[in-house]
Design brief:
The structure holds 2 protein chains of 2 kinds.
Chain A (H helix, E strand, L loop, with lengths): L4 H13 L7 H17 L9 H8 L1 H19 L2
Helix pairs in contact in A: 2-4, 3-4
Chain B lengths: L4 H9 L3 H21 L8 H16 L11 H21 L6 H4 L15 H21 L2 H11 L4 H7 L4 H21 L4 H11 L1
Helix pairs in contact in B: 1-2, 2-3, 2-4, 3-4, 6-9, 7-9, 8-9
The chains are: A mainly alpha, B mainly alpha.
């Protein structure tokens, strides 16, 4: 097993974001709808769900879903 | 007029004409939103969107009791359906890739020289790379190593989980533990968090 240069860069990025305790994907999913609505409406994110942003920085799967969700909701939320 | 979350729940919860009507309305909303979410994706066609919307409706009906009212009902339903869509897309995209490929020998990372990087710095980077390789090889379990390398290669955690008989949340925990070990190993070896950031910044 040898780690490639590309993987080293990706890992260094992740290490900089690594904390002893991190919210997991289930936590993120549980709050993702609320987090998306708050983000799209331009309101400030309540402290209780601010940790979702941290998880999205670290988790590619959740980030991809959040991005698609925001595209899906789009004007529906911004207009409401 | 748009239904309130409470109305959606009430209409969907009991079989009958109201449920049929609510399902048709929700299906329409989900299809419209799926189209919007994946409008630029050439791999997504109308048939895929309709299948996903149908799967989404089944999943939503089966988990109505999990809706906690933290968001609009339709936002919650869209979240579930988007996840189903991406799960299916990931499965298709990665179906021919095995985890073994991530453990095969690959071209090693090596510090490259450039005009902006001196000999001393190149040597420091070489040492850091060697240490990182050592920590990954010696301090991680086989499962942690495979999951971390697969993730670094871009494989979705969901797919790693599917191949290892696990699930996405467990894989996140596994790679989180792996990252913590690597970070601690590097810090114990005398590299500060700043060194790691600096290395990344000067190597691109």
């Amino acid at each position: 097993m040898i780690i490639t240069e590309e993987q080293v860069f990706a890992l260094l990025e992740l290490l900089a974001l690594t904390r002893d305790t991190e919210p997991n994907c289930d936590d993120c999913l549980q709050h993702m709808a609320e987090f998306a609505e708050t983000s799209l409406s331009g309101k400030s994110v309540p402290e209780a769900i601010a940790h979702i942003d941290e998880h999205l920085e670290r988790c590619q799967d959740c980030r991809e879903e959040f991005s698609a969700l925001k595209d899906a909701l789009g004007k529906d939320i911004m207009a409401s | 007029m748009e239904l309130s979350s409470r109305d959606w729940l009430a209409d969907l919860a009991t079989a009958g004409s109201k449920q049929d009507e609510a399902l048709a309305d929700l299906r329409h909303i989900l299809i419209m939103r799926l189209r919007r979410a994946f409008s630029g994706n050439k791999r997504v066609d109308e048939s895929f969107i309709e299948d996903v919307a149908q799967d989404g409706l089944l999943s939503i009906l089966g988990s109505l009791e999990k809706f906690e009212g933290r968001s609009l009902f339709t936002t919650w339903a869209t979240t579930i359906t988007i996840r189903i869509a991406l799960t299916q897309m990931r499965r298709r995209r990665w179906k021919d890739v095995s985890l073994d490929e991530f453990m095969a020998n690959q071209p090693a990372a090596s510090p490259h020289s450039s005009q902006s990087v001196g000999v001393e710095e190149t040597e420091l980077r070489k040492q850091l790379l060697q240490k990182m390789h050592e920590v990954i090889s010696e301090q991680l379990t086989e499962k942690q190593r495979v999951a971390l390398l697969a993730e670094l290669k871009g494989m979705p955690q969901e797919e790693i989980g599917r191949r290892t008989g696990s699930n996405r949340n467990a894989i996140y925990k596994l790679t989180h533990d792996a990252r913590k070990k690597v970070k601690k190993g590097m810090l114990d070896a005398g590299y500060s968090a700043e060194d790691l950031v600096l290395f990344k910044g000067t190597s691109k």
